Amino acid sequence: MATKLFILSLATLPSAQAWGVLGHATVAYIAQNYVSPATATWAQGVLGDTSTSYLASIASWADTYRATTAGKFSAPFHFIDAEDSPPTSCNVDYARDCGSTGCSISAIANYTQRVGDGRLSAANTAEALKFLVHFLGDITQPLHDEAYEVGGNDISVTFQGYTDNLHADWDTYMPEVKAGTSSLANAQIWANALIAEIDSGTYKSQAASWIAGDTVDDVVTTATKWASDANAYVCTVVMPDGAAALQTADLYPTYYDSAIPTIEMQIAKGGYRLANWLDMIYTASVAKRSLPIRETLESRRDGYDFLPAPRPMSPAKLAREAAGYDCGHKH
Ligand SMILES: *[C@@H]1O[C@H](CO)[C@@H](O)[C@H](O)[C@H]1NC(C)=O
Ligand SMILES: [Zn+2]
């Protein structure tokens, strides 16, 4: 019975998209630890939540929203389909890869602009913050920065005897083996462990480099750097010997052992960057509101001028569209 229940619960997992609920909540708890008190107060006000999980509670909202009719437009914002050639060549090119319906990078630019704008409704401001908390998590998941086989959604693999796709293993299965099922309590425990690694452990010497050069004055460049950083792991860790090599045996434990250090580091990075990002938005925009509002181009408030110039649809973009953004291919 226990085994049956376990399998049943696994069967429902693929509906958790992106880093799963666990990964996103962990990113959010890490960010909560590092934001300044002023940023925390501002974010709690925007979200109308002064609880100890104000960011963690909304970290997966964007995955629920994308599945609704009203939120369908946001489905492409969860990833960027880098049209590179893993495992021999990994790279992200914003103009080549973002696509005319937008991607994670243009979305981060748009919602960074919007959350700090000060003239949007409370609901639109909260929406922008909820999107940012989610997308700064998604962008550190290597397969959210990869077009190959629809971000690994079309690579069928077996993990602990259960056959699903490689993307789902990275989003959810492997994180849950490490940290348990997707409760906020488990996310907080995992976050605390990663915070300790940042403050005084494995990541202590690198954490500064995770945010070096990040600037809200050039979001596209900054977010492209984040995407490139994660995308590089597609060649070195996700499929160093190509996709077929992952289909010859169960991915647990050998592949899991090779991947989990990168998964943990990427979750830690996402949280550490998110805190710094929210602090920078607060300092650059929110804290200046007592001064006259900085004039922003009306068009920029919709974010469309962040998008790259339109290009003809590539085979990868056509494949993504054919797969549907939200049915079967959870990305
Ligand atoms: C910016 O955000 C608004 C509100 O969600 C959305 O309507 C618009 O399409 C977004 N623009 C881009 C370029 O993503
Ligand atoms: Zn997502």
UniProtKB/TrEMBL annotation:
The keyword Nuclease applies. Pfam families: S1-P1_nuclease. Transmembrane segments: none annotated. SUPFAM superfamilies: Phospholipase C/P1 nuclease (SSF48537). InterPro entries: PLipase_C/P1_nuclease_dom_sf, S1/P1nuclease. GO terms for molecular function: endonuclease activity; hydrolase activity, acting on ester bonds; metal ion binding; nucleic acid binding. GO terms for biological process: DNA catabolic process. Keywords: Disulfide bond, Endonuclease, Glycoprotein, Hydrolase, Metal-binding, Nuclease, Signal. Residues 1-18 form the signal peptide. Belongs to the nuclease type I family. This is Nuclease PA3. It comes from Coleophoma cylindrospora.
